[in-house]
Amino acid sequence: MTGKDSIYATEQAVKDFTFDENVVEVFPDMIQRSVPGYATIVSTMGKLAGAYTQSNSNLYDLGCSLGAVTLSMRRNIDKENCHIIAVDNSAPMTERCKLHLKGFKSDVPVSVILGDINEIEINNASVVAMNFTLQFIPPENRNAVLEKIYQGLKPGGVLLLSEKIRGENDIKDNLLIDLHHDFKRHNGYSELEISQKRTAIENVMRTDSLSTHLTRLEDIGFSQTQVWYQCFNFCSLVAIK
Ligand code: GEK
C-alpha cells in the first residue's frame, strides 16, 4: 500500500531530496499531484513505445521508479522477442518495482536492475524511455548519457524523453514556476510544502531549457525530434534515430 505525500507538511531542517523508503511509500501520490499530466504522459509513452518497438529488440525504462512506464510500454508491445530493462539506482524503488510488476501478467520479460544510468550499457534498443529522470543526472554527464543511448539505439529507434524544463529567461521561467505552484496548491499542497520541496530539490534536480534539450539531441545526431506534450514547465518529446 502506498500513502499520501506529507513529507514536507511540517516545518523541518530541509535536506537534499533522495529517493528513499519514505519517498517510495508515497511516490504514486507525490508524482501525480506534482507533475501535470503524469497519467497522460505515461499512457502516451506506452502508445509511442508500441508504435516504435522493433522485433528482437530491447526497450529500456531508465529511472523506472515503480515501473509505471515499463507497465505502459509492456501493454503496447505487439512485436516478437522483446525484452524490457528497467533501471533505477534507488534500491527501495527497484524492490517495490519488482513487487508491483508481479501484480500484472504479460509474456514480455522485464529485468528490473539496480544500477546507475551513468554506468549501464544500452544495446540493441528500439525504445529508450526516460520519464523525468535525465533531470537528476548531473548536467555535465547528460551529453555522455544521451550519446550512449543514441549509440545503443537501432536505426529508427526512439528516445522518449520527459523533463521538467527551465524557461528560456527569468521572466518566462517565473511565469511557468508560478503556474506549476498553483497546480500544486490546487492539488492540496500547502505553501510550506511547496517551499520546502523546492529547497530539497534545488541541488538535486537541475533543469535545462527546452532549447538546450533540442540542440543537444540534434548535435548528438537524432534525425527528428518532436515535442508532443507541454504543460507549464513539464514536457515530453520523441527523438528518432
Ligand atoms: C515514472 N520514470 O514513474 N541512475 C538510475 N536511476 C536514477 C538516477 C541514476 N543516476 N538518478 C535518479 N534516478 C518514473 C519517474 S522519478 C521522477 C522517475 C521524479 C531515479 C530515481 O531513483 C527515481 O526513481 C527516478 O530516477 C526519477 O514514470 O520523482 O520526479
Automatic annotation (TrEMBL):
MF (Gene Ontology): carboxyl- or carbamoyltransferase activity; methyltransferase activity; S-adenosyl-L-methionine binding
Keyword Methyltransferase in record: yes
Catalysed transformations (reactions): prephenate + S-adenosyl-L-methionine = carboxy-S-adenosyl-L-methionine + 3-phenylpyruvate + H2O
Pfam families associated with the record: Methyltransf_25
Thylakoid among keywords: no
Residues the record lists as binding S-adenosyl-L-methionine: 38, 63-65, 88-89, 116-117, 131, 198
GO BP annotation list: methylation; tRNA wobble uridine modification
Superkingdom of origin: Bacteria
Function text: Catalyzes the conversion of S-adenosyl-L-methionine (SAM) to carboxy-S-adenosyl-L-methionine (Cx-SAM).
UniProt record similarity statement: Belongs to the class I-like SAM-binding methyltransferase superfamily. Cx-SAM synthase family.
Protein name: Carboxy-S-adenosyl-L-methionine synthase
